[in-house]
Amino acid sequence: MPNGRKLGAPIGVEIDHSDGKTLWLYERCGADTCVGSSVDPVLKLDAGGNVMTSFGGGMVNWPHGFYVDPDLLDTPSDVITAANGDIFVADGHGVLDGHQTNDRIVKLSKDGTFIAAWGKHGSAPGEFDVTHSLAMDSAGRLYVGDRSNNRVQIFDPNGTFVAEWKQFGRPSSVTIDKNDTIYVTDSQSDDKTNPGFKQGIRIGSVKDGTVAAFIPLTDPAIGSAEEIAVDDQGNLFAGFTAAGKIAVRKFVKN
């Protein structure tokens, strides 16, 4: 057990159906109750019994059984809500722990009820390879940063494919402001992964997909942004995540 903690009463033991060997435990916070405890009661163990992750501390009092089904979300990368409260989840993030995670979009109602899911691993329209980011325009269309396919895919709210845009590079983050201006960060393009594109932030319009501006981020000392947000004045706030280069930087209009 990590950090010398004790194993509490293991009231739930389940195998992860995604790989058939990962073990999930639901235990009583190192004791026989979780009342007043901040210890995580849910633990994920590899085949050798090593704790890979844990969660749930302070959220339950009396663990008593759980279940792992074959369709869990699998490493969700982003989430966005529509004007009516519908929830869209980018479900999957490439290969993790030796297995291919989901590559799909999951749609839920505002109370969490499952509505629909679409997509699978691949490169055809409506297929994905690392669903890394989500954005939505004023018409309610969903924009998916399909990163390892070097494109942004566009869908209507029901999952019908509309278009794919490759002119914004290899998208790590996609956001759309109130004026339907689209901002896309590219933190991975190079001569090998996406020839012809440089890392940086591309800015354009969702009306026709044109790229109107580009902020190059090619200084190795700074690194490239993986996440982006924009305020009502058009200022950009970018998150830099590379080790040794972690920062939030603000970009303003000239």
Description:
- The structure is a single chain.
- The chain has strands spanning 10-15, 23-27, 42-45, 51-55, 76-81, 87-91, 95-96, 99-100, 104-108, 114-118, 131-136, 142-146, 151-155, 161-165, 171-176, 181-186, 200-205, 211-216, 225-230, 236-240, 247-251.
- It is globular.
- Helices cover 0% and strands 42% of the residues.
- The N and C termini lie far apart (54 Å).
- The chain has a four-stranded antiparallel sheet with strand order 1-2-3-4, with no helix packed on it. Strands 5-6-9-10 form a four-stranded antiparallel sheet, with no helix packed on it. It has a four-stranded antiparallel sheet with strand order 11-12-13-14, with no helix packed on it.
- A hairpin with a 2-residue loop joins strand 7 and strand 8.
Strand runs, count? 21
Task: Tell me the fraction of residues in β-strands, as a range.
Answer: 35-45%
What is the typical, i.e. mean, pLDDT? 93
- Determine and state the CATH class of the largest domain: Mainly Beta
Largest sheet: 4 strands, antiparallel
What do we call the CATH homologous superfamily of the largest domain?
Answer: TolB, C-terminal domain
Structural class: mainly beta
Instruction: Write the CATH architecture name of the largest domain.
Output: 6 Propeller
Query: Secondary-structure element order, as H and E?
Result: EEEEEEEEEEEEEEEEEEEEE
**Spans where pLDDT lies below 50 across 5 or more residues:** none
Q: Strand order across the biggest sheet? A: 1-2-3-4
Domain unit count: 2
CATH fold call of the largest domain: Neuraminidase
Helical stretch tally: 0
Helical residues, percent: under 10%
Q: What is the rounded Rg?
A: 21 Å
Q: What shape does the CA trace take? A: globular
Distance between the termini: 54 Å
